[in-house]
Design brief:
Blueprint (H helix, E strand, L loop, with lengths): L14 H12 L2 H13 L3 H29 L3 H9 L4 H33 L7 H9 L1 H20 L2 H28 L4 H9 L9 H15 L5 H6 L8 H29 L16 H14 L3 H37 L3 H21 L1 H30 L1 H9 L5 H39 L1
Tryptophan binds next to helix 1, helix 2, helix 10 and helix 14.
Length: about 450
Amino acid sequence: MSNGAPSGRDSWGTRAGFLLAAVGSAVGLGNMWRFSYVAAEGGGAAFVLLYVFFVAFIGVPLMTSEMVVGRLTQSSPVVALRTLGGSGWIWLGVLFVMCGIGILSFYSVIAGWTMRYAVDAFRGALPADTTSYFASVATGVPAIVTHVLFMGITVLIVTAGVKRGLERAAYALMPVLFLLLLGLALWAATLDQGGGGYAYYLRPDLSELLNPSTISRAAGQAFFSLSLGMGALMTFASYLRTKENLGRESAVIAACDFGVAFISGLVVFPIIFHFDLGAAIGLGGAVTDNTVGTLFIAMPAAVASLGGLGQYVIGAFFLMLFLAAVTSSISLLEVATAAAVDGLRWTRRRAAIVFGLLITLLGIPSARNLNFLDFLDKFVGAFLLIVGGLLTCIFVGFRVLPQAEAELAHGLDDSRARHLWAVFVRYVAPPVLLFVAGFSLIAAIAAFRTWIAS
Ligand code: TRP
C-alpha cells in the first residue's frame, strides 16, 4: 500500500514544489495580522516563546503525523482514515472537510479586503479617512464582491490540479511574497522611533508565560498558522511519491512559517511605534476593534500620510497579504476537493466548483457581520482545529502507531527520533491540547455571545 499510488492520481512534480506549496499553505493572513496582534496582546516576546514551544513540541510532531497518514494511504483524509482506522473514523475526516469549508468562508472575505486595499493603494485611491473607507469596503456588497472574486481565483487554481495548479502557484507567488516581506522589513527598519517597536516586540513580559488564556492563544495561533488540525498537510502528503524524511520536512515547513511570522512582526511593530499607534492595539474586544483595527485602519492611514511613497508601501503590504492568502486558501479548498475526488469519484473540476460555490455562499454572513466572522475565526479557526489535532494524535498514537511508525521509517531511519516522535504524539500533545481546547472553547463562546448580541 505504501508505494502503490492509485494510477492517474495527481502528484507533486518536485520535492521543492511540495515544500513551497506546504509553506505557502502555512504562510498566510495568520502570520501577518493574527500573529502580530496576538503577540502584542500576549506580552510580546513572552508570547513568542510560548508560540515557539507549541510549534516545536506539538506542531512538528502533529504535522509529521498528518503527513505520515497521507503518504501511507495516498488518499485524502476521509478515505485515508477509513482505510486505516475503519468506518468509525470517517467522521473525523468529515470534520476536517467542514473545518476547511468553514475557515475558507471567512478567510476569503478578509483576503477580499486585502485585494481591494492593494488595488486602491496602487491607484493612489486610498482615502485619508481609513475608518470610513474600511467600513465601506469590509462589509456589505463591496465585501461580497471581493469575496466572490477571491473565491473565483482559488477555484481556478485548484481546478488546474496539484502539479499544474497548486505547485505552479507556489513557484510563482512565494518568491514574490518573500521579496516583498524583506523589502518591507528593511523599509520599517529605517523609521525613527522604530526601536521602541522592536523593544516592545522582543522584550518578554514574563508574567504572561503562566497566563492560561495567553497559553491557549499561542497554541491556537500555532495551529492556525501551521495549517494543522484539519488534514490539509495530510492531503498534501498524499500526493507525495518519494520517501523523504517527513520529520525533517515538518521542521522545515514550521521553521519557514515561524520565520515569516517573526519578520512580519518586525514590519508591523516599528510602524506602530513610529506612528504612535499603540492605542490601536486595544486589548479585548472583537475582530472589529483590534485584529483588523491595527492592520486595516490605523496602519494604512499612518503610512499613507507619508505621501507618494506611502501609498506604494501600503500597496506592497496588502499585495503581500493577498499573495499569502491565495497560497493558503488553495490548501483550504483542496481538502474538500480531494475528499470528493477520492471518496465520491467526482472530477476535480466538479468538486472544486461545487465546494467553491458552497463556500462563497457560506461566506456571505461573514461579509455582512464582522462579529460573525470573529466567531467563526474563534470557533472553527481555533477550537475545532485543536479538537481535530487532538483526535489526529489519538488516531495516530493509539490506533495505527505501528503502521505509522513503519511509514515514517521510510526516510527517517533513526529509531530514537521515531520513538521520541511517538512519545510526543501519545503522551505530550493530547493532554496539552485537551487543556487548550477548553480555553479556546470559552473564547469561542464569548465571541458567540458578542455576535448574538450584535
Ligand atoms: N495557515 C494559514 C494562515 O496562516 C491559514 C490556513 C491555510 C489554514 N490552510 C489551513 C489554517 C488549514 C488551518 C488549517 O493564514
